[in-house]
Amino acid sequence: MARFTGFRATSSRMFSLPAAFVDDLLPLVDHLGELQVTLFCMYAVQQREGQFRYLLRADMANSSALLAALAAACPTLPPQEALDDALDRAIGRGSLLVAQVATAEDGEAVTLYFVNGPAGRTAIEQIARGGWRPGDDGRPVDILPERPTIYRLYEENIGPLTPMIAESLKDAELEYSAVWVADAIRIAVEQNARSWRYVQSVLERWRKEGRTPHETAPGSDEQDGQRFVRGKYAGFIEH
Question: pTM of the predicted model, to two decimals?
Answer without folding.
Answer: 0.65
